[in-house]
Amino acid sequence: MKMKILIIGGTNFIGPPVVRHLIAMGHEVTVFHRGKTTAQLPAGVHQILGERKYLTQMKDELQQLSPEVVLDMIAYTEHDARALIEAFQGMQARIVVVSSMDVYQAYSVLLGKESDIVPVPLTENSSLRSLLYPFKEMPNRPLGAPDDYEKILVENVIMGNTDLPGTVVRLPMVYGENDPLHRLFPYLQRIDDKRPAIVVPESIANWRGSYGYVENVAYAIALAATNAIAQNRIYHVSDVEALTEVERITQIGEITHWQGKVVTVTQSQLPKEWKLPFNTQQDWLVDSTRIRQELEYKEIVPLNEALKRTVNWQRANLPEQPEQFAAPWLLDYVDEDKILSQVI
């Protein structure tokens, strides 16, 4: 059944593939955005230009669209969520918000703010963080997140509203074409520099975190937005494969025909001043069974193909300031060469 869907945001990274999937499903899509990002959206997509901070002031114009679903891709703060509810209060619409797996207590443990290791994989009912605003004290916040970034509060507002039913989709670490964080770049840079080996500290080698390829994540969001079963539900989406970092690097190496190898070293083999800013005893894995069972979600792009596409895009789109995307657990080449001279 054709639905009217309004997307708040939708022109960066994950948004355009979400739009494409919704159009392919036969729905009518309108995108509300600032007009500052050039995105290739399918023909027939309606666009409304405006600033997120003026959302409530555009209430009448937005409500005239009579959307059955409002999908918010950029609700970062409690204020964002409350403005969203206010703008669409009184309508027969479902609110879908994109959230993050950073809501969990396990994330606080990973950051070293809590000490009790949380069992994984995490389910949608796992314990949330008791410490709010995780990025407030970070000198380099992901994507310039505001001080009051907090997906827990966003979710509380959306799922606690009795007039507008809600749906929450908690995302993993998303990679793929147009990834603003260039997640695979640190490994690919070493591979393309023809390094004989990539040195990985033992503390990170077997660490596992949940990732998701952008096309698969976008498809999952589209399913959650268009399926009535998703009303008042929270879903995880992530790759079904739970790779360790060594396995991930190895797979990228195989795809690129890299002739080097991954070398795992102990803490005693690392420079004395080296310290990892994470507690890697805490894995950061989520269980995506619920969305697979209830919405019949499955990956439309398999892992190997997803990595190939990402590698091809990354090679064609090197970051202007590569040092900004260095992985904190990888050594510089000088230190790496010293270690390799002793272990190889």
Kindly describe this structure.
By secondary structure, this protein is α/β, with parallel strands linked by helices. The protein has one domain: Rossmann fold (3-Layer(aba) Sandwich). It has 12 helices and 11 strands. The protein has helices spanning 15-24, 59-63, 78-88, 105-110, 151-160, 185-192, 202-205, 214-226, 245-255, 289-294, 303-316, 333-343; strands at 4-8, 28-33, 46-49, 69-72, 94-100, 166-171, 173-175, 197-201, 211-213, 233-236, 261-265. A 7-stranded parallel beta sheet has the order 3-2-1-4-5-6-10, with helices on both faces. Strands 7-9 form a two-stranded parallel sheet. Helix 1 (15-24) packs across helix 8 and helix 3 (78-88) runs parallel beside helix 5 (151-160). The longest helix has 14 residues, at 303-316.
